[in-house]
Write a structure and sequence with these properties.
By secondary structure, the chain is of the alpha+beta class. The protein has helices at residues 41-49, 91-102, 106-119, 135-148, 165-182, 193-199, 217-222, 227-232; strands at 3-12, 15-25, 30-34, 56-61, 64-65, 76-79, 153-157, 185-190, 202-207, 210-215, 239-246, 249-252, 258-260, 269-275, 280-281, 286-287, 290-297, 301-307, 313-319, 329-330, 333-334, 340-342. The protein has a six-stranded mixed β-sheet with strand order 6-7-8-3-9-10, sandwiched between helices. The radius of gyration is 24 Å and the shape is globular. The chain starts with a strand and ends in a 7-residue tail after the last strand.
């Protein structure tokens, strides 16, 4: 089911949260709305499912305008952060409740409940109540309940926020598997870039009620449109250095380092450089000397913070090294072909 937000706006009283947003989600696609708290992503999701009434514009499911259609008539499955299970009901009763509301016969409800339980791997939990389940098990029940109604659209609002790290990893792949197997159109709201990049076909990064960029995870990571997008994607995050461009060369602030401006670019005046951790280390063509200020062990690799003369910090992630110690001066280098250049207003040059 294709979803189209056509110049969608949402106000709460005099406060404008979303204004003239246009967004299209393809049939069978899983799209992430990614951004910091308060950027409007949950507001957008709640408008799609009908919890919020639109202030302006339209919301289309296929060719059907559902802008003023009640949520119960939109055939949308929603999974919330809090799971929202009925505590007095068993797992089987929770999953089958949407079918019971539809008035389906008990035998048919049991058949469909058993089938969806097998799909999400909770067959052995059917007689338990939510209080007897782990967080991951409750999330699977919530997913089963959302999917059993065969919704046109699946909406996921921070569904993994309450899970520990291991369960989040497991449920990321599980939700993606279910979405691909069912072919359902899905929208994931999250502030976690790893969730967005690992689970979704495309990402829409939002800030202050606007969509800043829409792209595949790979495209967005390597070709961010703005400094905000570059800073939001990447773990460990990108580092930014400030300088001034003149005559095809960027001079870093309070430093003797000079970086040639990529030939395709023309800039003069203040600029910001973005260097990702994987593009700074012992090998490279632009030497940027500094001192090892922090070493974080991550198992098979280490994250090194290199403090420059002006107090800025570059990060480098690489295999564990025995020749580098805290406080040591290093002459590591950046890969000039991978350095990103941003104008003063944050746009990518």
């Amino acid at each position: 089911m294709r979803i189209l937000l056509d110049k969608f706006s949402k106000n709460f009283g005099t406060v404008k949260v979303i204004e003239d947003m246009t967004l299209e989600v393809g049939d069978g696609e899983m799209l992430a709305l990614l951004g910091p708290s308060g950027c409007g992503k949950s507001t957008t999701l709640f408008a799609i499912c009908g919890i919020h009434r639109v202030t302006g514009g339209r919301i289309l499911f296929g060719d059907r305008d559902v802008s003023n259609v009640p949520s119960q008539q939109r055939n949308v499955g929603v999974v919330f952060q809090s799971y929202a299970l009925y505590p007095h009901m068993t797992v089987a009763q929770n999953i089958g409740f949407p079918l019971q509301v539809k008035g389906l016969p008990a035998g048919e409800i049991k058949r469909q409940v058993d089938a969806i339980a097998e799909l999400v791997h909770i067959e052995q939990l059917m007689s338990r109540r939510p209080a007897e389940l782990s967080g991951g098990q409750q999330q699977r029940v919530a997913l089963a309940r959302a999917l059993i109604r065969k919704p046109d659209v699946l909406l996921l609002d921070e569904p993994l926020a309450n899970l520990d790290a291991k369960l989040r990893l497991e449920m990321r792949s599980e939700i993606r598997r279910l979405q691909l197997e069912t072919g359902i159109t899905a929208i994931l709201v999250t502030h976690d870039q790893v969730e967005a990049m690992s689970m979704c076909d495309r990402i829409a990064i939002m800030n202050a009620g606007e969509i800043i960029q829409i792209a595949t995870p790979t495209e967005m990571y390597h070709n961010p449109r703005t400094q905000f997008v570059a800073g939001f994607l990447g773990n460990p995050p990108i580092a930014f250095l400030h300088g001034s461009a003149q005559d095809g060369v960027i001079a870093l602030d309070r430093s003797d380092v000079r970086i040639p401006l990529p030939k395709a670019l023309s800039a003069a005046g203040p600029v910001t450089l973005g260097i990702r951790p994987e593009n700074f280390g012992p090998s490279g063509d632009i030497v940027i000397p500094g001192k090892i200020a922090f070493v974080e062990t991550q198992g098979r690799e280490n994250l090194y913070d290199v403090k420059l003369a002006d107090g800025s910090v570059l990060r480098s992630i690489q295999p564990v090294r025995g020749d580098v110690a805290l406080g040591q001066e290093v002459g590591w280098a950046a890969d000039s072909s991978k350095i990103m250049v941003f104008a003063q207003d944050g746009t990518r040059l």
